[in-house]
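User: Sequence in, structure out. Go.
Assistant: Echoing your sequence, followed by the structure tokens.
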Amino acid sequence: MSSNSKRHKLLKILADKYIKANQGEEQALGVSWEDLISKLNWTMDELLEVSSTLYAEEEVAKHDAYGIKGIYAKMKGVSSYSSKKYKREHERIIFDRIKNWVQTVIPILSLTVTFTVIILSEVRLQSKDKKIDELTERINKIENDLIKSQEVRVDTTKIK
């Protein structure tokens, strides 16, 4: 799973908690590190790595209230989740990779097709040249036979 997909998953949990706290269903805004690790099935290192960008973007902050030590989503984080900021970024990266791959493969395929066409046309040309040579030989033979036949006629007319 990409870092952007992980950020989106983390923000989902934090945004849900933020909404519940603002509606009065929960007292605390934050989610403990242990709850996040168990819900996301990540290690603490993965959680810290993923949340570091969210800290830098000021989308989350540390939480230490109501006996919960962890993190909570700020309004900016909830907004990023609802606008699917990191999910769209992940999709953009995938699209760019596909686009780059296609931009590399198409010229290679085009070049391969071009070489194939050139080779096939050369083979056809050689075949036609061979047929022309055979026809030229046949014409020459027919002409020679015709000339010999006329010489023989000329000779027979002299005899009479």
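User: And one key feature?
Assistant: The mean pLDDT is 90.
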